[in-house]
Amino acid sequence: MVEISPRSAHVFPETPEVAHFNGADIDEARLLLNRFYYPVAVGLPEDVAGFQLGVGVIQLGPLTVGQLSFTSPVTLLVAELDAYHITMPTLGHLHARHAGREVFAGPSTGVIFGPGSPVYTSREANSVELAVKVERKALEEELSGLLGHPIEGPLRLPPEVDLSTGPGYSWRRLIRMLCDELEYESSLFYEPLIAEQLRCTVLSGLLLALPHRYHDELTGPVSAGPPRALRRVVDAIQHEPERPFTVTELARVANMSVRSLQEGFRRHLGQAPMSYLQQVRLGRAHEDLRRADPARVTVAAVAHRWGFAHLGRFASAYRGRFGETPSETLRSSG
């Protein structure tokens, strides 16, 4: 039985959607893979004793992250990929063919597929893998935002990535953490504001972890954005601090790259753009709590109004800024 549920009632363009499946019905398994990944043909050996697929998956708009487990040898065939996809075995080995290349992967290697070609994969019995799908437009727009200019043509990602060390290992840990959180109903990852930040982190981390045509430019020296452009970002934050801004969106406001925005904020304001946003939100929450009627207003309502998804972390940041808890401020207002 497939269980699919949105995890937040907030109005947000990319509300996280989560699915869990554990069963032996191949048709039901295929429908789930089709919905969250691609139309796929599932193949089993003729003498296979049984089939069991386990899936835990979360969809954050154009990003899909899941863990798939197979009890028997299985082949998956996708006629034509329409996204970037990374498969990372955590148990067992994987054989893949894509775009004229053949890769054998295990727990220390990730396989990378690009859009526009068919994909064939086969894995051993009792195998487990992390499967990450990123829509082509989303990944390329994320890169364009980081660089501050449009990109042209495919990224030309490598067919495989080393997951045993360096940036690849770090990025896999991020994906692993996200999959581990799927079983917790109260996970922060289900909050739309956090989910949007996480989506950007996964995409930008992937672009930094893999070699591609723009990697040298992405990791090279960067100049700080001009103060006038930074002022536009400051004004946007001051005007609507409750908006679920991402650093990429703030860079678009300034008409510069994310890296130039971050360097400009560091040089001229002494902090990162998202840190500045948090401080403005804390200030607005403080003003609301000081003026509120404690019989009619709750700390949670004020925190959520100003974009804080986790009350414990809000309270900790608030105390660090104002020397008292939100509840103390609210009680003193009465």
CATH architectural designation of the largest domain: Sandwich
Fraction of residues in helix:
40-55%
One letter per element, helices H and strands E, the order comes to EEHEEEEEEEEEEHEHHHHHHHHHH
Give the overall form. globular
Oligomer state equals single chain
Protein name: AraC family transcriptional regulator
Domain HTH araC/xylS-type: 231-332
Pfam families: AraC_binding_2, HTH_18
InterPro entries: AraC-bd_2 (IPR035418), AraC_XylS_family_regulators (IPR050204), Homeodomain-like_sf (IPR009057), HTH_AraC (IPR018060)
Would you kindly provide a written description of the structure presented here, covering whatever features stand out?
Helix content is 42%, strand content 23%. By secondary structure, the chain is an alpha+beta fold. It folds into 2 domains: 3-209, Jelly Rolls; 221-334, Orthogonal Bundle (Arc Repressor Mutant, subunit A). Helix 6 packs across helix 7 (247-254). The radius of gyration is 23 Å and the shape is globular. It starts with a strand and ends with a helix.
